[in-house]
Specification:
single chain, alpha/beta, Histidine-containing Protein, Chain: A, 3 domains, 4-stranded mixed β-sheet, 3-stranded mixed β-sheet
Length: 220
């Protein structure tokens, strides 16, 4: 049975209040037919991401529109140069990123990441770590994954992904269709919840030969 708009709104607000990563009560939630809109102000980009992830975990949420503003407290504000320097140190000090060539452009706290890495999961690691930094107010991840040898065929990538999805106890893979072209994976079909959708993407990113994901999975 589908939740009413009022029930869904109440459940999302309760989840936000329960989540320790979300501070304060400055988040508004509007619910309409399974779609929710998140509004308000948070004090860090990491908290903004935490709000969205918490909302995705609520049963009945089928789509999310996010209109949250990041407004840093004065004591958390950092110069763009300082943020860029910390990102450079992060990449240099992280052993799993030793072959990565990542550049960061920072404007008023908004970070654009470019460069190249060997594996898709490295692209995700950089974005996650940067998003947790003090002073960051926004993030665009334009890092590219280096080309794999030609012997990595599309059919092999599809086979590896399909097997991984079917092995995962928390993923209902029967309604997921996977196709691959030039390292770009297209996901189509339906998935019960947002957390399960995230698990699917994690499995795909862990597969050799994947450079990009086009996620057209529907939740519900």
């Amino acid at each position: 049975m589908m939740k009413s708009d009022q029930e869904l709104q109440a459940d999302v607000l309760a989840e936000l209040k329960w989540d320790p990563r979300v501070h304060g009560n400055a988040i508004g939630v509007i619910a309409k037919d399974g779609a929710i809109t998140l509004t308000g102000v948070v004090e860090s980009y990491a908290e903004k991401i935490a709000v969205e992830r918490a909302a995705k975990h609520v049963k009945g949420v089928r789509a999310i529109a996010e209109e949250i503003e990041v407004k840093l407290p004065d004591e958390m504000s950092s110069s763009d140069e300082g943020i860029a320097e910390r990102i450079a140190r992060l990449v240099g000090w992280t052993s799993t990123l030793r072959n990565a060539k990542v550049l960061a452009e920072v404007r008023k706290g908004c970070v654009t990441l470019t460069g190249e890495v060997d594996h898709p999961y490295e692209k995700q690691i950089v974005a996650q770590r940067v998003g947790e930094m003090d002073g960051v107010t926004g993030l665009t991840n334009d890092i590219k994954v280096r080309a794999w040898p030609s012997e990595v065929h599309a059919r092999d990538v599809v086979r590896q992904i399909t097997r991984a999805l079917h092995r995962h106890a928390s993923i209902e893979a029967s309604n997921i269709h996977v196709s691959v072209a030039d390292g770009k994976v297209k996901l189509e079909g339906t998935i019960p919840t947002f957390p399960e959708r995230e698990l699917v993407e994690e499995a795909v990113w862990a597969t050799a030969g994947v450079k990009e994901i086009d996620d057209d999975l529907r939740v519900g």
